[in-house]
Automatic annotation (TrEMBL):
CDD domains: LIM1_FHL (cd09343), LIM3_FHL (cd09346), LIM4_FHL (cd09347)
Domain LIM zinc-binding intervals: 40-100, 101-162, 221-281
Keywords of this entry: LIM domain, Metal-binding, Nucleus, Repeat, Zinc, Zinc-finger
InterPro entries: LIM_FHL1/2/3/5_N, Znf_LIM
Signal peptide per UniProt: none
UniProt protein name: Four and a half LIM domains 5
GO CC annotations, alphabetized: nucleus; Z disc
Coiled-coil stretches noted in the UniProt entry, renumbered to this chain: none
SMART domains per record: LIM (SM00132)
Organism: Seriola lalandi dorsalis
GO MF, any single term: zinc ion binding
Compartments reported by the entry: Nucleus
Length: 281
C-alpha cells in the first residue's frame, strides 16, 4: 500500500482502515488513543469515560451515565432534579432531609425549589404562612407581626389599630392623641384655617383645636394702638387699662409717642398722654 493510500491514527500511527476511529479538529485517532488523550475521567469510578459511553457533566465535572448517582442513597440522577452540597450531588429527597429547613407550621420539610416564606430565621411553605385572623395565605403581601402571630394588613387594622376620629380610617403608624382621641397626623388640623397642627403650638376653645394665629384673630382682645390681636400664647406682653388693652410697644403717648410703660400718664377722653403733654393741654 502506498503512503498516499494509508489512513493512520495521528498519534500511534496504526492503520485505521476498516477500524473505528474518532475525528477531533480534523485529525483522526483510534479509539484507544482518543480515550487516553482526550477522554474525561469519571468522578464516580475514576475511570476514563470511553467513546461508547455517555459523558454526563456538571460544573466541569464528568460522570459515566451509570455513575451519576446520589452520593447518599445511590439513586440515579439521570434526567432527575438534584442539588449540590459541597462536592456532593444529592437527590432532592436526601438534600431536603439533611439540609432543608422545616416548615414552622406543619413541621414538614420545605423541599428545594418549592415556594417558601422566611422571616426571622423561621421558614414556612407558602401555603402554610397564614394570617392569624382570616387564616388566608399571606403570600407576597405585606404583613404585621403581633405577639406570636402574623396578620395581613387589613386584619391587623380591624383587630388592633386605632381609628382616626376625623377620617375613621385605621392609624397604622404614628398618630396624635388629643383629648384622649386618636388622630392621623395629617388629619389633626386647625378648625379655622385647616393647617396641620402636629408638631406645632396650638390651643383650644370649646374642645376645638386652633393654631395660635386663628385663635388670636377670633378670640384675642385687640390692641387699641395697632388694632391687632393681643395674645399671651405667643409670649406677648401687654398693658390693660379700663377694659382696654395695648401691646407694650403700642402703649405710647398719642401726641409725642413716648413709651408710657412704667411711667405715669393722663387720659383725655379716649386718648392716653404722657404727663408733660397732658399739662400742656
Amino acid at each position: 500500500m502506498s503512503t498516499s493510500e494509508r489512513f493512520d491514527c495521528h498519534y500511534c500511527k496504526d492503520s485505521l482502515l476498516g477500524k473505528k476511529y474518532i475525528m477531533k479538529e480534523d485529525t483522526q485517532y483510534c479509539t484507544k488513543c482518543y480515550e487516553n488523550l482526550f477522554a474525561n475521567c469519571c468522578e464516580g469510578c475514576s475511570s476514563p469515560i470511553g467513546c461508547n459511553c455517555k459523558d454526563l457533566s456538571y460544573k466541569d465535572r464528568h460522570w459515566h451515565e451509570q455513575c451519576f448517582k446520589c452520593a447518599k442513597c445511590s439513586l440515579s440522577l439521570v434526567e432527575k432534579a438534584f442539588a449540590a452540597k459541597d462536592d456532593l450531588l444529592l437527590c432532592t429527597e436526601c438534600y431536603a432531609h439533611d439540609y432543608s429547613s422545616k416548615c414552622t407550621t406543619c413541621k414538614k420539610t420545605v423541599m428545594p425549589g418549592s415556594r417558601k416564606m422566611e422571616y426571622k430565621g423561621n421558614s414556612w411553605h407558602e401555603t402554610c404562612f397564614l394570617c392569624h385572623r382570616c387564616q388566608q395565605p399571606i403570600g407576597t403581601k405585606s404583613f404585621i407581626p403581633k405577639d406570636t402571630g402574623y396578620f395581613c394588613v387589613p386584619c391587623f387594622e380591624k383587630q388592633f389599630a386605632y381609628q382616626c376620629c376625623a377620617c375613621k380610617k385605621a392609624i397604622t403608624t404614628g398618630g396624635v392623641t388629643y383629648q384622649d382621641k386618636p388622630w392621623h397626623r395629617d388629619c389633626f388640623l386647625c378648625i379655622g384655617c385647616r393647617k396641620q397642627l402636629s408638631g406645632q403650638r396650638f390651643t383650644s376653645r370649646e374642645n376645638y383645636p386652633y393654631c395660635l394665629e386663628c385663635f388670636s384673630n377670633l378670640y384675642a382682645k385687640k390692641c387699641v394702638g395697632c388694632t391687632k390681636p393681643i395674645t399671651s400664647l405667643a409670649g406677648a406682653k401687654y398693658i390693660s387699662f379700663e377694659e382696654r388693652q395695648w401691646h407694650s410697644e403700642c402703649f405710647t403717648c398719642v401726641q409725642c409717642a413716648v413709651s408710657l410703660v412704667g411711667r405715669g400718664f393722663l387720659t383725655q377722653r379716649d386718648n392716653i398722654l404722657c404727663t408733660d403733654c397732658g399739662r400742656e393741654k
